[in-house]
Each structure stands twice: as structure tokens, then as C-alpha cells.
Amino acid sequence: MTRRIFRAAMTVALAVLLAAMTLIVGVLHGYFQSRTAADLNQLAAAAARGAETDGLDYFDGLRVSSRLTWVAEDGTVLYDNWQDAAEMENHSGREEIVQAQAQGRGTAERWSDTLEQKALYCAVRLDDGSVVRAASTQYSIWAMAAQGLQPMLLVLAAAMALAAVLASRLSRSIVRPINELDLNDPDSGSGELYDELTPLLTRLRLQSREIRRQMEQLRQRQKEFTAITDNMSEGFLVLDTRTRVLSNNSAALRLLETDETPVPGETSALVLSREENFRRCVEEALAGRRSERMVRRENLCRQILASPVVQDGHLTGAVVVILDVTEREQRESLRREFTANVSHELKTPLTAISGTAEILENGTVRPEDVSHFAGNIHREAGRLIELVNDIIKLSRLDEGGPDGSDGAWETVELYPLAQSVLEQVRPAAEKRSVTLTLKGGPAQARGVLQILEEMLYNLCDNAVAYNRDGGSVCVTVEQADGHARVTVEDTGVGIPPEVQDRVFERFYRVDKSHSRGGTGLGLSIVKHGASYLGASVALHSEVGKGSVFTLDFPPVTG
User: Fold this and answer.
1) Rounded to an integer, what is the distance from CA 542 to the centroid of its chain?
2) What distance in Å separates the CA atoms of residue 11 and residue 56, rounded to the nearest whole number?
3) Where does residue 97 rank: exposed (0-12), middle (13-18), buried (19+ CB within 10 A)?
4) Element (H, E) at 261
5) pTM of the predicted model, to two decimals?
6) In the chain, what are the domains?
7) Strand 409-413 to strand 546-552: parallel, antiparallel, or no bridges (unpaired)?
8) Collapsed DSSP state (helix, strand, coil) of residue 38
9) What's the gap between Cα 62 and its chain centre?
10) Which ranges constitute the DSSP H helices of 55-132?
11) What is the pLDDT of residues 182-221, one digit of tens each?
């Protein structure tokens, strides 16, 4: 803008200077022309008086810059101070001569062959009818301008230099208030602004306030959106048509297990994960089709959902949602495994019962063997009942605990409870010469007596069942750091480290060849019971040396 104002000021200054100089030259030309005509009239009148008085003698020794000519009444040139009169043609037809003879004075402007330029003539008639004429070169306005060109150019250059300085200062002074205007805060003006800018400033103020309000709303919505998305367990990616990430949350990077931090609008989503199923989901969504695939890695499972984004009938990108379905898949796997195990565990005793009953039904059993086969049926039926009871116990624990009057919470003395449990497993221990020992002293825990008894029974029963012949089982009850602790230690086969996390799974057995009967649900009942009572169960075991199970109960309050 400063340059435009400067150029405009210089153009105006130049136009004014040229117009002024043209006007001045025109005025001077007219002034000099009238001045020259007056001088020529005076010179012609003086020469006429001299010629009447002295004749040709008057012209002898006369020194004038203008041309003087004496013409007889018949047009013969009597005298001329610039040319030989004898060689000059008759002047009776000259305009100024004719006019002077008729009116006493005459003037004319024409090209002079003698002067070889335009000349101004003034003629005066004498009493004898002759005419004295004075002539002078008549400069045109262009000739006059050409003669003064050099000084005019010098004046023009000086004037333009001065105009440039003034125009520069003027343009800066005009633009300075506008340049100092803060468009982001029009109200902060210094008071030097032009009145003509008031409508613009008013509009800017209104727009600035509206923009600030909208920006504040956008920032607030962005904060809310970020707060929501960052606290989502699901990950999401918003992609453009070239797979570039436009937006994402932290969960997406965590679920994709990438250290890459995407730059919005630059980083490709395919850089975040090299999994084939992830890439196919993105490609299919950007091809306009909804896609759903699973990405599995070690013990992790991710579900990828990708949908195209269409606006006004045109594909503009895709939205990718990443779900952590590891726990769901594990539960589904456990459910399938549980179903298969239950089917297997139920099928074994039922097959034995069915087979034995079929033999008895066919009458092929000798009378003395009936009791043996009936014993088999009774034993397998008991095993079946035990299995069903354990399944019911687990089901109740999954649903929040036992039902009925047996589910009331109370403060339980653990030492006599452990003593009672050891008496229940003593017959099985004596069959294998396993020594049972109870150590410690009084300790109290809040819980459901039925669940506590089930937990201790299963730990002690396993300690006997998976022990070596002649081994030992030691149960320690103690009050430690304000809370009760029960430790069941055996000298059995031990549990390998790689499967110690799995022994609490339903129907899981470390080694089928070492199975001592049971339903395979004992440790699952211990784990679920501890979870229900707010207790914790820990395992320490070495293969060939035995295992130690520790139950820690929360402190008794109230």
C-alpha cells in the first residue's frame, strides 16, 4: 500500500510540474511575443521619423539587432540592414506593407526566406508614402521550450527529488496508523485512525468477537473430545483417503503396541501396525466396504473394525476402531474348555455306571459278584455327585456366594476349623502313611464358614492326594501383621513353574498320570472363594520337593 501511495503521489507531482511548466512556457511565450511586437512598433516608428528627417543618412551607422527595411511607395526596397537592397524583390505585395500604406501601420507574421524562420513584421508609413518596416524572429512555443530545456530539466529533476522525499514521508505517515492497527484486537487502537476506517473497524470488532467466541467453543469441545477419547479403553483412528492419520487417541497406540507418535495429516496408519489383517481392514474401508478382522499376537487379541466415511456421495476417509478382546477370547476359550472338561468328567462315571448296570441287567453276573458291581456303581455315582456339587459351588461363587442360611458372614476361628478339616482327611492320609500336623495358634477371619471350610478342605485334600507315600502335610494358622494367615505345606510331587498360574483353572491337572481322583475343581474353588472373601492365595512350589499354599485374610474390623 505504501508503494501505491508513493507512486500515486509521484504521478500527481509529475503531472502538476509538467502542467505548471507548460503553462509557464505558454505565458512567457505570449508575454515575449507581445513585448517583441511593442519593441518592433517603437523601432519602426523611430526609424520612420529618422528616415523622414535624414533620409538614407539616418540608417548609416545605425546598429540594431532587429531587421530594418525602407520600402518606396511602389514597393522598391530602398534600404535593408541585413541584405543588399538592390538584390531584393519588390515588396509592394507584402501584407504589412499593404496594411501600412492603407492604414498608416501594419503587422504580419510569416515565414521569412531571408531570416529562414518565422518572423514578426511591424511597418509604419511615412508622409511620402514610403514604408519603414522592422522585423524580428518570432520563436514558437516549442522553440522557446527547446532553448530552455536544460534549465527546465534541472528544475524538474530537483522538483521530482523533493517530491520523492515528500511523497515517501507522506505515504509512510498515511499508512502508519493502518499498519499499527491490530486486527486481532481492533479496540486497542491508539486513537490516530481515520474516520473513514470506522465502519471497517466496527465490522472487524464484531467479527473478532464472534471468532473468539467460536474458537473458545471449539477449544472447549476439543478438550471434551480429548478427555473422552483419552479415557476410552477402545482405540480409534480417523484416516483420510491416503491412509494418513487425521486424529487418534492414546488407546489406539497402546492397543497397536507401537512407539510411533503419528503426525496429523502426515503419518500413514500402516506405519503404526504391520499386521496383515490391520492393513486389509484399512484398505477395504478405503475401498468403501466395512471390514472386521482379528489381530492375534502371543496372548493378546485385538478386534479391528473399519468403516468408510462418505460425504455428499464421495469417500473422504475411514474410521478404524480397535477393541481389546483378549479377556473375552480367553473367557470364550475357558468356556469351551470348561464345557469339554465337564462333558469328559461327566461321561467317565456315567459310562462306568451305564456299563455296570447293563451287565447286571443282562444277568451275566454271578450272585457273589453283584456286590462288587454294585460297589462300582455306588463309587462312580458318588464321584458324579461330588463333581456336580463342586460345579454348583463354583457356580454359586461366580454368582456372588452361597445361598440360604449357610451364606451368613461371621467371625470364624481358623485354628479349630483347620483342626476339623484335618480330621476329615485323616483317613485318606493314614492309607498312604502321610503325617498331618497343625501348628500356630488362634486367628480370626471374617467370612462365610461354609466357604472357609471348603477352601481349607480342598487344600488339605490335594496336599494328601498329591503327596508321596510316607510324606507329610503341615497346616500353620497364625495372626500376622493384624490379619490371619493359613499355610498348607506338603512334601508331594510339586508343580512345575511354567504351569503354576494354570493350576487354579477349572479341571486343570498338572500331570494326568499323577491324578489321584477328584474333580479337578478343588483349586478353582479355593481361588474363587478367596476372591469372594477378599482374601489372597499364593503358591510356592518346587518339583520333587512339594508345594506351599498360603491364604491371607483381611484384618477383622468391628
Assistant:
1) 56
2) 61
3) buried
4) none
5) 0.42
6) 2-147 (3.30.450.20), 232-324 (3.30.450.20), 329-398 (1.10.287.130), 405-552 (3.30.565.10)
7) unpaired
8) helix
9) 101
10) 95-103
11) 666 666 655 556 677 678 778 878 888 888 889 899 888 8
